[in-house]
Write a structure and sequence with these properties.
The complex is a heterodimer.
Chain A (H helix, E strand, L loop, with lengths): L8 E2 L9 H25 L1 H6 L7 H12 L1 H28 L5 H31 L2 H4 L26
Chain B lengths: L2 H25 E2 L1 H8 L3 H14 L1 H32 L1 H24 L1
Helix pairs in contact in B: 1-2, 1-3, 3-4, 4-5
Chain lengths: 167, 114
Amino acid sequence: MTGLHDSVGASPGKLKNIRAGELAQRFAFGAGVSLVAGIIGVLAGPRAGGLFLAFPAILPAALTIIEKKEGRGQAVQDERGSFFGAVGLVPFAVVCDLAILHLRVAVTVLLALLAWAVSSLACYLAAEALRPFRSRPVAAVAPSSLRPKEAPMSVKTQSWSGSAGGP
Amino acid sequence: MSEIVSLGLRALAGGAFVMAFAALGEVLVPKPFAGIVSAAPSVAFANLLIIALSKGSPYGQREAQGMIVGALAFVVAALAGRSLVGRRGGLRGSLGLCAVWLVVALGGYAAVLR
């Protein structure tokens, strides 16, 4: 048992399901936020503009489309994943801050993108690996001496959702 | 490069990168894994590249410093967003998430960067 509930992968065939209107909607969000960040940078300085580089630009369009096509549950799952991506934005910005004066700009942003990918993925995998332990029922993890004597034995495997059927 | 041209390029590149990451998010499974891409640095990647090339690395560094505060605000907003999206749906929940981000980011800016 790896602790991962669903295997990670890609289905390139799903690209055919994306409508042009959905892509246009996302382009508009991205362009709009970039423009706002730029204008704020001009008016209030680069640090104020930089704030908006981490604005949740994709989420409103993405979650609306996912909810419409696959239901609210899937939208919540997507939002859950965005937390891991958001955690990775911090090392992205830190790498840019530390390296941009010393390396070529293109190298800096590529390194920062790598830092985002590695930290987001590590955070996701750690959360998925810990999930079975967080959802394990008390009776299954407590030593037998601490279990109530009248507790039914069936509690042991109840609600253990892993495919291996529990410890 | 004039300011207007720079802003136009940033908008075009930001939109294109958001679109590309969104397409990547469509093909990844399962959903929480695909969701990582919903918080990809698509706008930041395009904008930092253009801004540092057009205005110089020190300007880009100051934007990156602002982005650190914005990224921390996104972490807080994403935590709050789970219940907001669950209760209010995709559009209203994500707009609520953006409002949380705005409050935390502006508070952080006022406290740390100003």
